Amino acid sequence: MKLWxxxxxxxxxxxxxxxxxxxxxxxxxxxxxxxxxxxxLEEATRLAEKAADQAPDRLDALLLQAILLEKRGRLxxxxxxxxxxxxxxxxxxxxxxxxxxxxxxxxxxxxxALVALGRAANLRPGDRNTLILLCNVHMMxxxxxxxxxxxxxxxxxxxxDSAPYQxxxxxSQLRNRHYQAAGQAFLKxxxxxxxxxxxxxxxxxxxxxxxxxxxxxxxxxxxxxDLAPATPESADTRRTVSARLRAIxxx
Length: 251
Known about the structure:
Elements: H1 2-16, H2 23-37, H3 41-54, H4 59-71, H5 75-88, H6 93-104, H7 110-123, H8 128-141, H9 143-153, H10 157-160, H11 163-175, H12 179-192, H13 197-210, H14 214-227, H15 235-249
């Protein structure tokens, strides 16, 4: 939701500026925004597409169309439109960031995401959202490289103190074999968000497998099982955790 609102806000700013383009295109875009606000995403997309057809290189039309397609779950179509926007406006931060963000939503496009986000970072050094996405993508591809983005983000004290940041920091430290530091970061994440199952599991695994504190991990594993939803996606993890609990308690 946050990214959706951020994207819409960026497009609103572009439309508000007028861009010196034909009035009928701006009217189409304003109509698309009204339809989107009312939840009529299909009609909003149709209007945004019509605007983009009339002004093929107009950035606000392309970005709005891409964001609406994303909202409707049509990621590949959204990517094609966002790529057009980025290619037509190589020096525009919003265009490059939007393309990178959409690429980052699909693990198969992680390398392309790094390229687009790298361009965005060069256009607006230190941008918080860009650094967060670069960190997240590197955690998938090359965790060692994620550390420098975590370090840059550490200057933002509010973000640094958040549970998501501390969890990512813990993963980075763990993959760099800094086990004590990883445990401390996971513990901070759990204290900030005590009911987040993923953070509890990360802390439990760190204590159990890397710090030799299996007994300390027992209530953390149990708490994870209490909180994690029993879905098909979590079934394998829940079985592994249950088996590990039995093994520890059987000693």
